[in-house]
Amino acid sequence: VSRPGLPRVVATKGAALARVLGAGPLAMADPDSVPAGKYGREALTRLGAWNAVAPRVVRAENVRAALALVERGAAPYGIVYATDARAAPAVQVAGVFPPRSHAPIVYPIARLSAGDSAEAEAFRRFLLSNAGQAILARRGFATR
Q1: Cβ 26 vs Cβ 58: under 8 Å
Q2: SS3 30
Q3: pTM check: above 0.85
Q4: What is the pLDDT along the chain (144 residues), one digit of tens a residue?
Q5: Element (H, E) at 50
Q6: For 98, left (φ over 0), alpha (ψ -120 to 50), or beta?
Q7: 49 close to 79: Cβ distance less than 8 angstroms
């Protein structure tokens, strides 16, 4: 994502991508401990740009914190999930990583074998229902 008015970023290889990002900081969730940061580092590495941008990465506690840095103008660009970017009208999607540049992002749902909560089971069934899947799709999540 970026603040409105900044150029779009085409996820090309190596130094070209780093040049487009410029000298400013790049906000992202901590790539050592947060899944979104790990996906971002993986994509930048596969594109050959990680070494060029790593010194400028501002490591945020989570995706929303990285997004807030861009929203406040503390970083011109940030790496966040598309679903988070859609929820932030103060930013624009500046580019999207190619699908094969990182491992698939999956949100599993499971029922604990020791769990016996009727409410939890009802919620799980709702999420898997057509109505639940429609809500997830409207929010930008790919479904089954």
Answers
A1: yes
A2: coil
A3: no
A4: 887 777 777 655 666 777 777 778 999 999 999 999 999 999 999 999 899 899 999 999 999 999 999 999 999 999 999 989 988 999 999 888 888 899 998 888 888 888 888 999 999 999 999 999 999 999 888 876
A5: helix 50-53
A6: beta
A7: no
In a domain, 25, yes or no: yes
The amino acid at 133: Q
The position carrying tokens 């906000």 is 27
Boundaries of domain holding 80: 14-101
* Other CB atoms within 10 Å distance of the CB of residue 11: 17
Position 8 in a domain: no
Q: Which amino acid is at 44?
A: L
- Domain count across the chain: 2
Task: Say yes or no: 23 and 70 in one domain.
Answer: yes
String of DSSP letters for 120-141: HHHHHHHHHSHHHHHHHHHTT-
